[in-house]
Amino acid sequence: MNYKILDVKEQLLEENDILAASNRKALQRNGTLLINLMGSPGAGKTSVLLRLIAALKEEYKIGVLEADVDSDVDAKAVSDAGAKAVQLHTGGLCHMDAAMTAQGLEALGLAGLDLVFLENVGNLVCPAEFDVGADLRMMILSVPEGDDKPLKYPLMFTVSDLMLVNKIDTAPIFDFDFEAAVSRARACNPKIRVFPVSAKTGAGFEDLAACLRAALAERRPKP
Ligand code: MG
Ligand code: ZN
């Protein structure tokens, strides 16, 4: 064999981990909590964000990085809701990595922000592979996607700290087995915390907001 084969992805991932660690340090210095929000297109990432912004904006300064292949509809929505927003166009790339997140955080400006959400590009595959330096990884499984998703995309469930089961109000229509979805997710990750929610009705958001408040209190103890 007279040619080399380089595992480029592996190398990129190593570089990514170094940058992710530097993002994490910058966030810690500023007392800012970063949440990486992931899920399929249509799972309700932006609708969930709008609910969380409404629940938390009186107590905390919130920033949002909206990653999308194109368009700025989501950045407009979260900015209208009261968050400081930056739209990131990934130029066709299907996930966010730590370098892109660093650029986004710099554009957003961390000073004064307690909480930043990164709305990742919609898919359940590669966003799970890239550590962006977030303190929490929060993924959404929406009921219409089916209770078998943890079997098909195990890495997403393995790396996530929080699993939101969104559109829970539609569970009877879609014949969604909540217990089966949870036990399949826990088979990937026994520690995953599960929150059934409905961004449409607002159900479940008190518990989720309480969980985020606890994480925020740890990051920035109130005087
Ligand atoms: Mg969105
Ligand atoms: Zn990708």
List its salient traits.
223 residues; Rossmann fold; seven-stranded parallel beta sheet; binds zinc ion; alpha/beta
Describe the structure in your own words:
It is a single chain. The chain is an alpha/beta fold. It has a single domain, classed as P-loop containing nucleotide triphosphate hydrolases (Rossmann fold, 3-Layer(aba) Sandwich). The chain contains nine helices and seven strands, in the order αβαβαβαββααβααβα. Strand 2, helix 3 (73-80) and strand 3 form a beta-alpha-beta unit. Helix 1 packs parallel to helix 4 (98-108) and helix 2 (45-56) crosses helix 9. The chain is globular. 42% of the residues are buried. Magnesium ion (MG) is lined by residues 45-46, 74, 119.
Chart the SSEs and their pairings.
Elements: H1 8-30, E1 33-39, H2 45-56, E2 62-68, H3 73-80, E3 84-89, H4 98-108, E4 115-119, E5 136-142, H5 149-152, H6 154-159, E6 162-166, H7 171-174, H8 178-188, E7 193-196, H9 205-219
Parallel strand pairs: 1-4, 1-5, 2-3, 2-4, 5-6, 6-7
Helix pairs in contact: 1-4, 2-9
Bound molecules: magnesium ion and zinc ion (ZN).
The site of zinc ion has 3 residues, from loops.
What CATH architecture label applies? 3-Layer(aba) Sandwich
Strand content: 15-25%
Mean pLDDT: 93
Oligomer: single chain
The description of the largest β-sheet is:
7 strands, parallel
